[in-house]
Every structure is written in C-alpha cells, then in structure tokens.
Amino acid sequence: YTYVDSLPVSITTKILNTYKFVRDNGSSFLLVHAGSTVFSSSQLGTTWRTVVTGISSKYPFRFATHYDKVFGANAVNTTFSFDGVTYTEYSFIPKAFYPLSADGRLWMGSTINSPSSVYFSEINVDPITNADWETTNEQKIGLGDGQTIKGLDFQRGVIWVYKDRSLYGIRSITNKYLALADHGTVSQFSISGYNNGKIFLAKTGFYYFGGGNVEYLSNDINNLISGIGLIAANSSRISITSSAYFSTGPFIGMLGAVL
C-alpha cells in the first residue's frame, strides 16, 4: 500500500470519480476527478499533479485504458487521453458519457444529443486521428424506446449496452440484439464484476447477470445494506471486488490508494 498526500482541494470539494490507470510497463497512476479538476498521482504515488482543470464539476469523467493510454470522457468537455506524462485532447472523438475499451476498439456510449448511440473507433489502432472515427462508426441502440444508455460493459465477447429498462448486446459492429426487455440499470457505477458475471442496480433492486437470464439479489442483501445505512444515504456507491467497499455519502478525502 502506498499512501497518497491529500488532494489539493477544499474538504467540501466533491470527488466525482476515481480510476486506476496501469501502463504496459507496469507503472500505475491514480486518476481522480474532484470538482473542476482531474488529478493524477505521480508514478511513485506520493504527490498529485493536475491533468486538466476548468472542466465540469457536475458531469463525472469516466475512464478507459486503451493502447497504453487512459481516455477520459464526460459528454460535455472534450475527450482526452493521458499516458502518465502527456495530456492530449481530441475534438473528433465523440463527447460521450461512457468510454469502454473492448474487442480492439474504443467505444463511446451516449452523447447529450444522441443518448441511444454507441460510437466506435477503427479496430486494432490507436484511435487518435480523425480517420479512426468515421461518421458511419455508430450503432443506434433501441432508438425510439424512450430510454437512454446508462452504461457500457464487456463480458464473454459481447459489448453490453445497459439502458434504463433494457439490456442490449453488440457481438460485432453489424450484429446487435435485445438481450433483456425488462431489466436495465440506474447507473454505470453500479455495474460490478461478480462470480463470472455482473451485478447491477435497477430501480427495483440489485440483479445478477451472467450472460443469460438475470437473478434478483436484493432479498439476500437488503438486511446487509440496511444495516450500514446505505438505503437512507443521499448518495451511495457499491463496488464488489476482492476488497468490497461501501460508501454512504460523497467522498471528501483520499486516505490512500493501491498502486
């Protein structure tokens, strides 16, 4: 464990998202979107540097590692990449809510003007030129269903597109299908790997999805969640990993990071 100095922000600044970026050479960096700034830990993990500032403090940047860089997107500010040293903006990459690296492509899900669209780069390239983002590289997912995309995920060779009340699969750029017509998620942040599948939070509770049918889990965990006060919290996040953690409110400080 390497402990990181406190972020250079006030204690009332809200942390919108965090992401661990690991390069091919093994060096790692912790990225934190706090207020109107994205910070990165140094390679040694003891100090902070500013990656970009002057960004939205309302729309969290989400991140995806692709071609030895981390790409950040939040649908309102310009999409960027960061390799641990160099920060670069890309005006031609769609400003989307949900970036995902999978199947040799960088996928960008849901923009403000096209909330049911998934955009994708050319395959097996570092997608940092305009030619890597053809205007035809777009899949419209459930267009006209009255729902918006809430998250992207990759599992068992399929790009899964979570909407409010449904789940779609993309097996290839020409093969998409409706996987579940009655289950969706409320947030990308709720999608977490578990037992060779995914757990996600819908408006009706927690569900497990293994690639086929879904299993309702809330009956098993309601007592646990109630016991730690998660249901009554103003904001919360659950992450199920080898070291599960629960949060019952906004983060106001950084205790440390595993780097």
The helix/strand order is EEEEEEEEEEEEEEEEEEEEHEE
Termini gap: 7 Å
State Rg: 18 Å
Strand portion, in percent?
35-45%
What would the average pLDDT be, to the nearest integer? 86
Topology, number of strands: 22
| Widest beta sheet: strand line-up | 1-2-3-4
Which blocks of ≥5 consecutive residues have pLDDT under 50?
240-259
Helix percentage:
under 10%
List the helices and strands and how they pair.
Elements (H helix, E strand, L loop, with lengths): L14 E8 L5 E7 L2 E5 L6 E6 L8 E5 L2 E5 L6 E3 L4 E3 L8 E5 L2 E5 L7 E4 L17 E3 L8 E7 L2 E6 L3 E6 L2 E6 L11 E3 L2 E6 L2 E5 L4 E3 L1 H10 L9 E3 L5 E3 L12
Antiparallel strand pairs: 1-2, 2-3, 3-4, 5-6, 6-7, 7-8, 9-10, 10-11, 11-12, 13-14, 14-15, 15-16, 17-18, 18-19, 19-20, 21-22
What would your notes on this structure say?
It is built from one helix and 22 strands. By secondary structure, the chain is mostly beta strands. The longest helix has 10 residues, at about 220-225.
Short description:
By secondary structure, this protein is mainly beta. 4% of the residues lie in helices and 41% in strands.
List keywords for this structure.
1 helix, globular, 259 residues, 4% helix, mainly beta
